[in-house]
Each structure stands twice: as C-alpha cells, then as structure tokens.
C-alpha cells in the first residue's frame, strides 16, 4: 500500500475535524461494524469474490487482520515492517479477526495517541504521520472495508450520519491523481456515482463502484 504523505491540506482538514469529532470513537464504531459483518461469514464464504478485485473474502480478511496488527504495533512505536505482513487465518477466521480488531482498538484508546509521531511502514518507510492522520487512515479503511464485506456477503451495512459525515471529510482529503494508479495504491481512481447516498459517495470517491457486483 502506498499513500502520498502530504501534510498540507489533508493535515489542516484533519486538524479541523479533530476539533469537532472523536476520531478514535468513530474508528471504534467502524471497526465494530466490520466485526459484526465478519461474524456472519462462514467457511464457505471465504472463496467469494469481493469489491477488491484481487481478493476473495479470504484475502480481504487476511489483509484486514494484518492492517489491525500493523496499526496497533505502529502506534506503540514498532516500526518493523514485518508486523504488517499477512498471516494464516487459522482454524477460526472470525475469532482471528475479532482478536486483531480488539488489539487495534486497545492501542488507539491509549490516552496520548494524538501526541505521537507514527511510522506506518506499509505506507511509508520514512515519513512519520501524526496520530490523527494514522487514526483517520484506519477509520476510512474500515468504513470502506465494512462496505466491502457487506457487499461480499450480500448483507446491508449501516452507519450513523455523524460517522458518515466525518468519513466523507476524510475521503475527500485522500490524494487523487496519479497516486491512485501506483502499484499498491490504497485506493483506486474515483468512479462516477449517481445517488445521493453518503456511503455510496464515499466508496465511489475511493475507487469502488456503489453498484458492485453489477458494475
């Protein structure tokens, strides 16, 4: 995964957002939604295709688990890139996902997380992000990955308006242009959308078709 570590407009946007919302609490709610959806998955579902073109549900879950472990380690000062590597799902993928989600939630809840400078080795080997940037990256990922899992399992997904409003701000701050086409880019190029639904807008802004799998 790669991301443009621009500290200009995006940082100012996040600074303004932090004055209005509790990013850690919003992230916890997004992750909780993802856990509730993953709880519905069966072993037979692991071979289903997902909106992430290169992954079945098995691949998506291994990615999500690795991200949780990676973010948790990073906010605690561990810059070792191997903590971001995927690992076997094991005999109980749902339990593995729950454990990883709990780990990152505990790490983000530490009281001084926004005061830290954080090296996210999967994003950049050198640039240190602010705590707010790190939490916002994880937050928007788990809004979108919750949608990914819901679509994969043909289940509804619901977020409250306050969460979606914040997610829309973060999504709008994600760099576009050529960075979306780079190998390992966090998100694909924006796709057209035609509905007024806020979640549809967010996933479209971040490279998913709201109509998947029909389009």
Q: Explain this structure to me?
A:
With 215 residues, the protein is mainly α. The protein has one domain (9-205): dinb family like domain (Four Helix Bundle (Hemerythrin (Met), subunit A), Up-down Bundle). The chain has helices at residues 9-18, 23-38, 57-75, 93-108, 131-153, 161-173, 198-205, and strands at 117-119, 128-130. α2 (23-38) packs parallel to α5 and α3 (57-75) runs parallel beside α4 (93-108). The longest helix is centred in the middle third of the chain and has 23 residues, at 131-153. It is globular and about 40 Å long. Residues 30-149 form the Mycothiol-dependent maleylpyruvate isomerase metal-binding domain.
Architecture blueprint of SSEs:
Layout (H helix, E strand, L loop, with lengths): L8 H10 L4 H16 L18 H19 L17 H16 L8 E3 L8 E3 H23 L7 H13 L24 H8 L10
Antiparallel strand pairs: 1-2
CATH architecture: Up-down Bundle
Percent of residues in helices: 40-55%
CATH homology-level superfamily: dinb family like domain
Q: How far apart are the first and last residues' alpha carbons, in Å?
A: 25 Å
Strand order of the largest sheet: 1-2
> How large is the share of residues in beta strands?
under 5%
Number of strands: 2
Shape: globular
Kindly state the mean pLDDT as a whole number? 91
What is the structural class?
mainly alpha
Low-confidence stretches: 1-5
Number of domains: 1
InterPro entries: CHP03086, DinB/YfiT-like, Maleyloyr_isom, MDMPI_metal-binding
GO molecular function, one term: metal ion binding
Domain Mycothiol-dependent maleylpyruvate isomerase metal-binding: 30-149
Pfam family, one: MDMPI_N
């Amino acid at each position: 995964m790669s991301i443009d570590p621009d500290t200009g407009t995006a940082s100012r946007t996040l600074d303004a957002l932090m004055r209005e919302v509790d990013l850690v609490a919003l992230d916890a709610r997004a992750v909780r939604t993802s856990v509730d959806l993953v709880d519905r998955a069966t072993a037979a579902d692991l071979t289903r295709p997902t909106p992430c073109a290169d992954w079945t549900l098995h691949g998506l879950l291994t990615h999500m688990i690795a991200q949780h472990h990676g973010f948790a380690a990073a906010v605690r000062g561990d810059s070792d890139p191997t903590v971001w590597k995927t690992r076997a799902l094991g005999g109980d993928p749902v339990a593995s996902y729950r454990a990883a989600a709990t780990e990152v939630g505990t790490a983000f809840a530490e009281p001084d997380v926004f005061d830290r400078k954080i090296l996210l080795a999967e994003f950049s080997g050198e640039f240190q992000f602010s705590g707010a940037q790190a939490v916002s990256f994880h937050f928007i990922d788990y809004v979108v990955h919750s949608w990914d899992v819901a679509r994969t399992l043909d289940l509804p997904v619901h977020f409250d308006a306050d969460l979606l409003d914040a997610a829309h701000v973060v999504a709008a701050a994600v760099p576009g242009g050529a960075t979306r086409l780079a190998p390992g880019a966090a998100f694909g190029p924006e796709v057209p959308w035609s509905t007024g639904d806020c979640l549809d807008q967010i996933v479209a802004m971040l490279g998913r078709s709201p109509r998947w799998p029909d389009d």
